[in-house]
Amino acid sequence: MKAVRRDGRILHAHHRPAAPGQATLAFSNSLGTDLRIWDRVVAALPDTLGLLRYDTAGHGLSPSGGEMSIEDHGADLVALLDAFGIDRAAIVGLSVGGQIAQAVALSAPERVAGLLLSNTAPKIGTAEAWGARFAAIGTGGMEAIADATMERWFSESFRTANPDELLLWRTMLTHTPARNYIDLGRAIVGCDFTDRVATIAAPTLCLAGGEDLATPPAVVKAMAEAIPGAQYREIAGVGHLPCIEAAEETILAIADLLKEVGR
């Protein structure tokens, strides 16, 4: 557990240095979660790989940075790379974490060895839909959106088969401070890289969940078609968080990305 000071704030991070000649993977999380969503994935990765996980500002153990743009969050990730002496990383970004990864690829392409963009898009949702969600939180707190969020995060089969585990992930969401959730949600509303992703040059693999209600497969596929040379992969029967629901398939996607990167 590391505390990295950034613009008067603290970012909570976990870092494992790479063995000589090996790649580093940097993971960026989804809205309402923290770095623990990657536990199953990183536990199965070779111990020679470098790993960087962190809590996005306002989530987990990272205090809020107030209202920030996706570009600001991308600058946080670059600052973490600097703090740990990582010249280049393959960034694995999930949902808003995927938008943060896009921001880094657009603003600091020399720091990006490759991208795994999981269940994300250059633009996610509509202002109207996000506004309704924020209004529900304002009236009933995080509990007001918890059940609907679980339906987006996980497939029906996963929710039915894993009720106790589902409660843990639901608790992670509801323990996220409402103000911090809304701040990051507003950053998502303000993000639209649609006209810029065609300039991304890093090797890219775009991953979709067949039952993802937040970023449906068609949205992820359209992003893959817009990024030159990007690959598209869909995991059937999986919701918005394949790193939890389909860790093995996520690991295979990471392995394939690293092969393309050349490590």
Would you mind describing this structure in some detail?
The protein has helices at 39-43, 70-83, 96-107, 127-140, 143-153, 156-161, 163-174, 178-189, 217-226, 242-245, 247-261; strands spanning 2-6, 9-16, 24-28, 50-54, 89-94, 112-118, 204-209, 231-235. Helix 3 links the parallel strand 5 (89-94) and strand 6. Helix 2 (70-83) crosses helix 3, helix 4 (127-140) packs antiparallel against helix 8 (178-189) and helix 5 (143-153) crosses helix 7. The protein is globular and about 50 Å long. Strands 1-2-4-3-5-6-7-8 form an eight-stranded mixed beta sheet, sandwiched between helices. It is an alpha/beta fold and 263 residues long. The model has no long low-confidence stretch (mean pLDDT 97). Helix content is 44%, strand content 18%. The chain is built from eleven helices and eight strands.
Q: Nutshell version of this structure?
A:
The protein is α/β, with parallel strands linked by helices.
What is the total tally of β strands?
8
Radius of gyration: 17 Å
Number of helices: 11
H-E string:
EEEHEHEHEHHHHHEHEHH
Structural class: alpha/beta
For the biggest sheet, the summary is: 8 strands, mixed
Strand content: 15-25%
Uncertain residue ranges: none
Main sheet: strand order: 1-2-4-3-5-6-7-8
What is the residue-averaged pLDDT? 97
Helical fraction equals: 40-55%
Shape assignment: globular
Distance between the amino and carboxyl termini: 27 Å
Please specify the SSE layout and strand pairing.
Elements: E1 2-6, E2 9-16, E3 24-28, H1 39-43, E4 50-54, H2 70-83, E5 89-94, H3 96-107, E6 112-118, H4 127-140, H5 143-153, H6 156-161, H7 163-174, H8 178-189, E7 204-209, H9 217-226, E8 231-235, H10 242-245, H11 247-261
Parallel strand pairs: 3-4, 3-5, 5-6, 6-7, 7-8
Antiparallel strand pairs: 1-2, 2-4
